[in-house]
């Protein structure tokens, strides 16, 4: 029997952008997609199974039936990817833990902080490994920024700015992300803001202690679609997150700037294979092939390699964690709980007219 890891996917059916990214990232990492419940619509689920190359008898009607049937197979699944709306993350993960299956989940970890804490406790009792798709932290130049900040190359961190803008809701639009029953307490703050928050903590190596949020909504939406959040870090730095889904013309504009007392670092998804280091009066462009090679070419530009490569990186690290390796750079349930605490405190702060609140 093939000893490669065997993956099931929940969600990711026709029309899903992220399903294909999971599939390709996992395949590059040496993982076979062999089963799934790709949609609540049986016809759509069957069509997705065909497109993914999954046998028809391993395309299941519901999640519980999938875990039961796969547990009875000698070649049953060893891991599951959760690519469903947020409200389905916790029940799917709990079923996976009960079945002893490892879990790789889309972010946010759950729909609410209480659910994230529930999941953390369930994982502690079980034997399932857990990974979370904070994808941008897997880019080599993002990890290079983290390493250089840890090495003191820009001195003491003073200011952290993270921007994430999309135009997907610039006009009238709907979907599960605008539905509190499916998304949870946050809209844009959960969808884009959690990515920005994770980057802020991941790159600096510091935790956010307090925040003040202003969350806006348009087109009569029940959830936010345009957000600004001020941050105070435990290490003394200040910061700001801008996350918006009403930014006309923006497809996936995510970037960060970190300013220290001796330099700065700049990264932009549009040129994901470059990192700009500023020290004194010198601007240094770092590339991915040799991070130690300092390329001093003003105005040099590059092209990011999309989301497949970082997904493959996270899946490779996930396989290592499933095999008993250390979590290392792979985001896990600790980051899941932190991000949900960020969402709930931001919603609460904004509802109170913009008030500083602690993140516990």
From TrEMBL:
GFO/IDH/MocA-like oxidoreductase domain location is 142-265
Q: Which SUPFAM superfamilies match?
A: Glyceraldehyde-3-phosphate dehydrogenase-like, C-terminal domain, NAD(P)-binding Rossmann-fold domains
Q: Which domain of life is it from?
A: Bacteria
Recall the GO molecular function terms of this protein's record.
nucleotide binding
Q: Where is the Gfo/Idh/MocA-like oxidoreductase N-terminal domain?
A: 33-125
Which stretch is the leader sequence?
A: none
Q: Where are the transmembrane segments?
A: none
Q: Which Pfam families match?
A: GFO_IDH_MocA, GFO_IDH_MocA_C3
User: Mind telling me what this protein is named?
Assistant: Putative dehydrogenase
Organism field: Novosphingobium sediminicola
């Amino acid at each position: 029997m093939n000893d490669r890891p065997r993956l099931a996917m929940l969600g990711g059916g026709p029309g899903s952008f992220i399903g294909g990214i999971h599939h390709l990232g996992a395949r590059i990492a040496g993982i076979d997609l062999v089963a799934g419940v790709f949609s609540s619509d049986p016809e759509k689920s069957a069509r997705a199974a065909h497109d993914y190359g999954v046998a028809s008898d391993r395309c299941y009607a519901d999640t519980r039936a999938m875990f039961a049937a796969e547990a009875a197979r000698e070649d049953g699944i060893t891991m599951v990817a959760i690519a469903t709306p947020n409200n389905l993350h916790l029940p799917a993960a709990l079923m996976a833990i009960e079945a002893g299956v490892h879990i790789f989940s889309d972010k946010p970890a759950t729909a609410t902080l209480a659910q994230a804490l529930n999941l953390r406790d369930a994982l502690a009792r079980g034997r399932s490994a857990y990974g979370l798709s904070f994808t941008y932290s897997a880019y080599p130049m993002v990890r290079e920024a983290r390493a250089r900040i840890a090495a003191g190359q820009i001195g003491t961190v003073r200011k952290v700015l993270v921007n994430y803008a999309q135009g997907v809701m610039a006009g009238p639009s709907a979907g599960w992300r605008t539905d509190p029953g499916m998304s949870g307490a946050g809209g844009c703050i959960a969808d884009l803001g959690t990515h920005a928050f994770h980057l802020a903590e991941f790159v600096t190596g510091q935790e956010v202690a307090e925040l003040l949020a202003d969350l806006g909504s348009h087109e009569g939406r029940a959830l936010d679609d345009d957000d600004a959040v001020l941050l105070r870090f435990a290490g003394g730095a200040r910061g700001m997150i801008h996350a918006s889904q009403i930014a006309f013309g923006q497809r996936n504009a995510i970037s960060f700037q970190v300013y220290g007392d001796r330099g700065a670092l700049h990264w932009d998804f549009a040129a994901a294979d470059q990192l700009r280091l500023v020290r004194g009066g010198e601007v240094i462009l770092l590339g991915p092939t040799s991070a130690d090679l300092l390329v001093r070419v003003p105005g040099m530009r590059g092209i990011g390699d999309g989301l497949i490569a970082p997904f493959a990186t996270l899946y490779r690290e996930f396989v290592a964690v499933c095999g008993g390796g250390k979590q290392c750079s792979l985001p896990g349930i600790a980051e899941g709980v932190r991000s949900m605490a960020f969402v709930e405190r931001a919603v609460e702060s904004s509802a109170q007219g913009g008030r500083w609140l602690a993140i516990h």
